[in-house]
From TrEMBL:
It comes from Streptomyces antimicrobicus. One of its GO terms (biological process) is methylation. Residues 53-142 form the Methyltransferase type domain. This is Class I SAM-dependent methyltransferase. It comes from the Bacteria.
Length: 255
């Protein structure tokens, strides 16, 4: 017998959403991955520098996987959310990285020209002037970011049609313009739209609890009717399909 709506809701409401590990969704949701392989590329870049900073590291999972046994002599990471700071500290300290708790706003708590490499995966905000400031001449910013209208099929299911300026936000062309305005040279830019499937309503609830900016103020109680309708739709028609937007950007500070 398939799990009931109430069972799926209770399960998804009670599970922890600490960190940036989405393994709870295994078998319940699937997301096509970008073709470039960010973590593997990040690992190669970390192995080639003497100092690196990972901004908005989350729970440190991606950075830890990229470092392996080959991180740079100086490795730092920043994070603002206290549960993530604790998790990243436990994960990254054994790898020789220091985790700095700091708000996601300027200034970065480091001196000028401190790092050969600055990285970030899915940053919420990007302070290009600060990135340029802490990079050494010849240094690189390397980032995978969420692109425009990502998973908007789900967003608009709950919020209704969004205006064009909202749908266009986080466009890679804007990132290129902002990087250049900060004095950086963009040397690589790639973007893809990728298929995402939610196989049960628990996966939807978990996702929206974890990625809190997708449907601001989301609660099960406040959206219960729409959640039940979506549950019935998934039960009768199959997975709810959305599309994520991802882009990769690499920018260099002139020597």
């Amino acid at each position: 017998m398939a799990p009931t709506f109430d069972h799926l809701v209770s399960e998804a409401e009670s599970v922890s959403v600490e960190g940036w590990d989405f393994s709870w969704l295994d078998g319940r949701a699937s997301e096509q991955r970008p073709s470039w392989g960010y973590q593997k590329m990040l690992g190669a870049k970390l192995a080639a520098v003497r100092s690196a900073l990972d901004v908005q590291t989350g729970g440190g999972e991606v950075l830890a996987g990229a470092v392996g046994a080959g991180g740079p002599p100086l490795l730092a990471a920043t994070e603002s959310w206290p549960p993530n700071v604790d998790k990243a500290t436990r994960l990254l300290h054994p790898l020789g990285a220091v985790v700095v708790a700091t708000p996601d706003e300027p200034p970065l708590p480091f001196g000028d020209e401190a790092f050969d490499l600055v990285t970030s995966r899915h940053p919420v905000t990007i302070w290009w002037e600060e990135i340029a400031r802490v990079l050494r001449p010849g240094g690189t910013y390397f980032s995978q970011q969420v692109g425009p209208a990502s998973v908007f099929e789900l967003v608009e299911y709950f919020l209704g049609p969004q205006p064009e300026e909202v749908r266009r936000a986080r466009h890679p062309d804007d990132a290129v313009a902002d990087a250049r305005k900060a004095g950086l040279e963009v040397v690589d830019l790639r973007s893809e739209r990728l298929r995402t499937e939610f196989h049960d309503i628990g996966a939807v609830i978990y996702f929206l609890r974890k990625v809190i900016w997708m449907v601001p103020g989301f609660t099960v109680a406040g959206h219960r009717d729409r959640l039940r309708e979506l549950h019935e739709r998934i039960e009768s028609e199959g997975p709810f399909v959305a599309h994520t937007a991802r882009f990769l950007i690499e920018a260099r500070k002139p020597g």
